[in-house]
Design goal:
The chain is α+β, with helices and mostly antiparallel strands. Among the domains are: 116 residues, no CATH class; 131 residues, Histidine kinase-like ATPase, C-terminal domain (Heat Shock Protein 90, 2-Layer Sandwich), CATH 3.30.565.10. It has eleven helices and five strands. A five-stranded mixed beta sheet has the order 1-2-3-5-4. Strand 2 and strand 3 form a beta hairpin. It is an enzyme of class 2 (transferase). Pfam families: HATPase_c, HisKA_3. Keywords: ATP-binding, Kinase, Membrane, Nucleotide-binding, Phosphoprotein, Transferase, Transmembrane, Transmembrane helix, Two-component regulatory system. Its EC number is 2.7.13.3.
């Protein structure tokens, strides 16, 4: 049996605070079960003492040695109530007293069982070895006590070994339960950490979409200022204001992304919060693109969209946002048609169309090339599907369907 680690601070069985070899085992709010067990051990020790008294009377032992034997045995029986606090001390005292007082054998067996439960095998082995010498020492100290038959000696040894094995089994079982509880707790903490990290990753992806949208607006306005240096001062001032606001918002979004990522290191118990747009925010998203110079036509059913669950609405919002960002990157002068429909019992359909960019020599805004892949993953995880690509009519079509339990 492996020794217990003194540094282990895992919870111990009821009624035990410490299981280290050098620490006392103190009662920690004893339960009714603990008190019942203690009472049973006390009664067992008292019963063995009474049997020893009856056996002594039957063997006509002198009254004085028999009275001393009974008093010592009774004191050891009272010491059984301290077995949880000082198991090794009780075992040593009971063993020493048992050399003279045979009536203390019941208390000695209870102490041996307690040591086997609460102490390491090295300590138990020393106590058991000392107990093995007690019968031989008794023959030297108490010549007035007759030696019993061999069958009785063998039965006593077998009973002591059974008590010792039972105590070691109880200890092994408690250690197994404690280790199982430790594993369950570790697995629970791992699942919580994974869930927390997954939430941070999700929020980081959300912020990535927002940040990409902000930066594309910023790049578009900066490009307009570069291409029209002779614009009216009012237009330049308005465009510069939009650039300033977009840059500020982009910095705020970036700061929030960094805060989300740092939360896993600096604030593990803090739940990060991020923007949670829904389909109700689509008009504002389209207005932002229109203020950036895009031509966007929005067709959506306001009443039906209000019944869409927030999770589905957020995914649809991100699909529209990424579609507008891609259109602004690759076809900045094209008209974009956005159609969002919600059919009760069917789901939410999102479609973004814009003419495919021609060979106009326009330098598009560079992208990471992962937007459509992320949208496909988002739609798949939501139980829907996403399609994208050119159409025979010469348009680029981004289409997605998301299941929605609309009532």
């Amino acid at each position: 049996m492996a020794p217990a680690d003194p540094r282990d601070r895992s919870p111990l069985p009821a009624g035990v605070i410490s299981d280290a070899d050098h620490d006392p085992v103190r009662p920690a709010g004893r339960t009714v079960r603990d008190r019942v067990i203690d009472a049973a051990c006390f009664l067992l020790a008292v019963g063995v003492t009474m049997l020893a008294l009856v056996d002594g009377l039957a063997q006509h032992i002198a009254p004085v040695p028999l009275a001393v034997d009974l008093v010592l045995g009774s004191l050891c029986c009272l010491g059984v109530w301290l077995r949880r606090r000082w198991p090794v001390g009780l075992a040593v005292v009971a063993g020493v007293v048992g050399v003279y007082a045979t009536s203390a054998s019941g208390a000695a067996l209870v102490a041996l069982f307690t040591v086997a439960v609460h102490r390491r095998f090295a300590v138990v082995a020393r106590i058991a070895a000392g107990y093995a010498l007690v019968p031989f020492l008794t023959l030297l100290v108490r010549p007035d006590v007759p030696v019993g038959p061999w069958s009785q000696i063998v039965l006593g040894v077998a009973f002591a070994l059974a008590v010792l094995a039972w105590g070691m089994f109880v200890r092994a079982r408690r250690q197994s339960l404690r280790e199982r509880a430790r594993r369950v707790k570790a697995e629970q903490e791992l699942r919580v950490a994974e869930a927390r990290q997954g939430e941070r990753n999700r929020i980081a992806r959300e912020m990535h979409d927002v940040l990409a949208h902000r930066l594309s607006l910023l790049s578009l306005h900066a490009g307009a200022l570069e291409l029209r240096p002779d614009a009216a001062p009012e237009e330049v001032a308005r465009a510069a204001g939009v650039v300033r606001d977009s840059a500020y918002q982009a910095l705020e979004d970036l700061r929030e992304v960094i805060g989300v990522l740092r939360a896993g290191v600096n604030r593990p118990d803090e739940t990060p919060e991020g923007p949670q747009p829904t389909l109700a925010d689509l008009p504002d998203l389209v207005d932002q693109s229109r203020r950036a110079g895009m031509t966007v036509r929005l067709d959506c059913q306001t009443d039906a969209l209000a019944a869409v669950p927030a999770v589905v609405g957020r995914s649809a919002y991100r699909i529209v946002q990424e579609g507008l960002t891609n259109a602004r990157k690759h076809a900045p002068d094209a008209e974009v048609a956005v159609t969002v429909q919600a059919t009760p019992g069917d789901g939410v359909t999102v479609e973004i169309r814009n003419p495919c960019p021609g060979s106009t020599g326009t330098v598009g805004i560079p992208g990471a090339g992962m937007g459509l892949i992320g949208l496909t993953e988002r739609a798949t995880l939501a139980g829907g599907r996403l399609e994208h690509g050119p159409t025979p009519a010469g348009d680029f079509r981004l289409w997605a369907w998301l299941p929605s339990p609309i009532v």
